[in-house]
Design brief:
By secondary structure, this protein is mostly helical. The protein is 69% helix and 0% strand. Among the domains are: 50 residues; 87 residues, no CATH class.
Length: 230
């Protein structure tokens, strides 16, 4: 009685103080804490089967949670002298909790031979797959960023070009000149003359002026006929 009572807390002492010998105390303690032990093992089972993937967790952290619960379950079963759980059950639980980006991993792992389905090999391949997924995601983010920057640059270029052209003075639409305005052409307006037309008109005027000058010169140099009366 002295050994038992000296190892108890005040709360436990209140539960067994009504008994008169060590055997009765021991049996009462056994009933109280054996039931607590069964409840604890049940709670661990529930935690194990209800555990799901957490977005912010790494693969190593997720596997550690499941493996810790797995070890506690087997220790509890060992204390009760019951059979240990097979590793296949742990692997199936891990596969069930993996997110969508591991679909290809599931399909590639299941056809493996039975002797290769060890928890150590499974853990190694999962961590490798996690690194590959991160690299692919990083590569995709870089490509998306480059595409976005190219789109923004193209938009700015188009905006600048339209801004430089300005507004049509005839139809008042942005981004075109009067000479290329469809409404202007449809209404029968003459297009703005180009540089060649200017040169052609200039050459024609120059030629006409030259002919006129020659005509005046020829007229002024012609001898006047004398009057018949002279």
């Amino acid at each position: 009685m002295i050994v038992l009572t000296n190892s108890m807390t005040e709360e436990t002492m209140q539960k067994i103080m009504r008994f008169e010998n060590a055997r009765e105390v021991w049996l009462e303690l056994h009933k109280l804490y054996e039931a607590a032990s069964d409840n604890q093992l049940y709670n661990i089972f529930m935690q194990f089967f209800q555990l799901k993937w957490t977005v912010n967790d790494s693969m190593a952290a997720h596997l550690s949670k499941l493996k810790n619960l797995w070890n506690e379950l087997n220790l509890g079963l060992e204390r009760k002298q019951e059979a240990q759980l097979p590793e296949m059950l742990l692997i199936c639980k891990i596969l069930d909790t993996l997110p969508q980006e591991y679909r290809s991993f599931k399909s590639s792992w299941l056809p493996l031979n039975e002797d290769k389905r060890t928890i150590d090999e499974f853990t190694t391949q999962l961590c490798t797959q996690e690194r590959e997924n991160k690299e692919e995601k990083l590569k995709g983010d870089v490509q998306n960023q480059e595409a976005l920057e190219a789109k923004v640059t193209k938009t700015k270029t188009l905006y600048k070009s339209k801004k430089l052209i300005g507004e049509c003075n005839y139809c008042h639409q942005n981004g075109l000149w009067v000479k290329s305005c469809r409404k202007w052409i449809a209404d029968g307006k003459s297009a703005k003359p180009n540089q060649n037309d200017k040169f052609q008109r200039k050459d024609g005027v120059t030629a006409n002026m030259s002919l006129l000058a020659l005509h005046e010169e020829a007229f002024s140099s012609h001898p006047h006929k004398k009057d018949s009366n002279e």
